[in-house]
Design brief:
Elements lengths: L5 H9 L1 H30 L2 H33 L12 H41 L10 H39 L2
Length: 184
């Protein structure tokens, strides 16, 4: 184990392994915070329209961070682990790790570019309809248009949450555990 010197710190700063670890840690930390801590606290303590508007502003930054860092992770993995083979399916880590990193990138990009904006649009329409009709989204007296928006929102939000959990967070944890035990 080398001693900590300015030279060794500089070397660690520009090391692909260090960049990989920092990007992976940031991805997992942001994912856990947004999905299970900050989001839950806001949901329980803010009025629903305020919570929704904060999420609408927060999620593009979160998905941009996730997709960018995941793409960096994939690039580092493919560039510095010459045995990685994303295009030869197997149960070997040379395929699984790049596959999981690809999943993380694609799921975050999908949420950023398509699902997130679609969900936000439905949410805004629901808020506008609530203001117009003076009836909350979950009021039994809500009309057919609100019921339609509720169904659309539920589907879109479910897809977004599933992509985040199964396409991003779980793969992030698996990659972290693998790299922690076996390295890049």
């Amino acid at each position: 184990m080398p001693q900590i010197t300015l030279s060794s710190l500089a070397q660690a700063t520009i090391s692909p392994r260090s960049a990989f670890q920092l990007a992976l840690g940031t991805n997992i930390g942001a994912g856990i915070w947004v999905s299970f801590i900050g989001g839950v606290i806001m949901y329980k303590n803010l009025p629903r329209p305020v919570f929704g508007n904060i999420q609408r502003k927060l999620f593009p930054a979160y998905f941009t961070l996730g997709s960018t860092l995941s793409a960096i992770l994939l690039t580092i993995q493919l560039r510095f682990n010459k045995s990685s083979n994303l295009f030869k399916p197997s149960l070997n880590s040379t395929f699984i790790i790049p596959f999981l990193l690809s999943s993380m990138t694609i799921s975050s990009l999908t949420n950023l570019i398509y699902i997130g904006p679609k969900t936000s649009k439905i949410m805004i329409n629901r808020h506008l309809l609530e203001d117009k009709e003076k009836i909350k989204y979950d009021d039994p007296r809500a009309g057919q248009e609100m019921k339609k928006l509720n169904k659309q929102f539920g589907i879109s939000h479910g897809i977004s949450s599933s992509l985040n959990l199964f396409g991003f967070l779980i793969p992030s944890v698996v990659v972290c555990l693998w790299v922690g035990e076996f390295g890049l």
